[in-house]
């Protein structure tokens, strides 16, 4: 029980510091080191294997950190960084904007405000597959779809709420959360997406959209009745996208190219050709450079802009990969101190069914993502525990990882401190707290349906 007490104290400290807006990387990294020191003091387990040991347990703590760095940078980290590089290149050349504009074209011909809302929601869910960043997708939709929704008769707050829930789950083989879940489960990201994510998410997507249709008019009437002020000062500086850059419509196919390649040449379709995500990103970037040269005839510009790809990679290391490593170090500390074994023994001693444990895991992830304002931070901190929990329950680890990964997105979309919600709300000049409140009813209903779908299809 001592291990659980120490883990609880450290975890409460982590939660408090995250609530106080400390950087999650630093908090989780420090918490992991503290827990590993506690494990060394109490001798609960070996920090590293005998072959990897320095000869003293105190230095083994830093060897464990080094091993996490080397394993993640060479595998999952490189995958996520390559995706970030490609997305940054797509933003720079205007291809992401071209994709959203092409998808938004049908909205211009819709007259009913409520129908505009439904179509905009559907467009957001589709584009979600190609743009893995919640904030990036939100800013693009604010630039293209938001003006159409407002001009069509929707209030600013309703339009922003629809955009905020365009990524209430992290799905698709390009999502960093999905890639981590698939890697941990020993699956190909495409297989994980098609065989697991779609079944768990599609019913929730339908329910969230239907809930918006009824919930948003109700909020409009309530806010008008009680004269609730939902506005703040608009800050256009939040929008970092170049709205004046014009590119050919054919550029819209470029952001879709990696997804097409990794799906077609994945083990799921048995084509005999295997293409990993990193290779697909490099190939797609080269294709985009060829497009740029054809349409600009400026070799100097095209070759210089490759630096945008590397800038995107660097940003993903700074923001996402560093978070994965820090969260996994924290997770390693919890494991080495014996807290996870004690917690699992406690749960199995209470004879909880798999259904209850899966529900509890989902609720924990929702709460963590809500508090942290980040689906990545919440999922990365707990993903490494899934195989051990699955082993005790005698189920496939993917059945624990699936609700873990997807539930984090639900919690993020209800948090007023989520970066994407803060950014898009500031552009529209509405309160992020009111945006989060507007998201709550549809997202909660979506979470319930999501859990029922997991029960029905997989448990």
From TrEMBL:
<dbReference type="InterPro" id="IPR004669">
    <property type="entry name" value="C4_dicarb_anaerob_car"/>
</dbReference>
<feature type="transmembrane region" description="Helical">
    <location>
        <begin position="440"/>
        <end position="458"/>
    </location>
</feature>
<dbReference type="GO" id="GO:0005886">
    <property type="term" value="C:plasma membrane"/>
</dbReference>
<keyword id="KW-1133">Transmembrane helix</keyword>
<feature type="transmembrane region" description="Helical">
    <location>
        <begin position="138"/>
        <end position="164"/>
    </location>
</feature>
<keyword id="KW-0472">Membrane</keyword>
<feature type="transmembrane region" description="Helical">
    <location>
        <begin position="379"/>
        <end position="402"/>
    </location>
</feature>
<feature type="transmembrane region" description="Helical">
    <location>
        <begin position="249"/>
        <end position="269"/>
    </location>
</feature>
<feature type="transmembrane region" description="Helical">
    <location>
        <begin position="414"/>
        <end position="433"/>
    </location>
</feature>
<feature type="transmembrane region" description="Helical">
    <location>
        <begin position="27"/>
        <end position="48"/>
    </location>
</feature>
<keyword id="KW-0813">Transport</keyword>
<feature type="transmembrane region" description="Helical">
    <location>
        <begin position="275"/>
        <end position="296"/>
    </location>
</feature>
<dbReference type="GO" id="GO:0015556">
    <property type="term" value="F:C4-dicarboxylate transmembrane transporter activity"/>
</dbReference>
<feature type="transmembrane region" description="Helical">
    <location>
        <begin position="110"/>
        <end position="131"/>
    </location>
</feature>
<feature type="transmembrane region" description="Helical">
    <location>
        <begin position="69"/>
        <end position="90"/>
    </location>
</feature>
<dbReference type="InterPro" id="IPR018385">
    <property type="entry name" value="C4_dicarb_anaerob_car-like"/>
</dbReference>
<keyword id="KW-0812">Transmembrane</keyword>
<feature type="transmembrane region" description="Helical">
    <location>
        <begin position="196"/>
        <end position="215"/>
    </location>
</feature>
<keyword id="KW-1003">Cell membrane</keyword>
<feature type="transmembrane region" description="Helical">
    <location>
        <begin position="352"/>
        <end position="372"/>
    </location>
</feature>
<feature type="transmembrane region" description="Helical">
    <location>
        <begin position="317"/>
        <end position="340"/>
    </location>
</feature>
<dbReference type="Pfam" id="PF03606">
    <property type="entry name" value="DcuC"/>
</dbReference>
<protein>
    <submittedName>
        <fullName>C4-dicarboxylate anaerobic carrier</fullName>
    </submittedName>
</protein>
<comment type="similarity">
    <text>Belongs to the DcuC/DcuD transporter (TC 2.A.61) family.</text>
</comment>
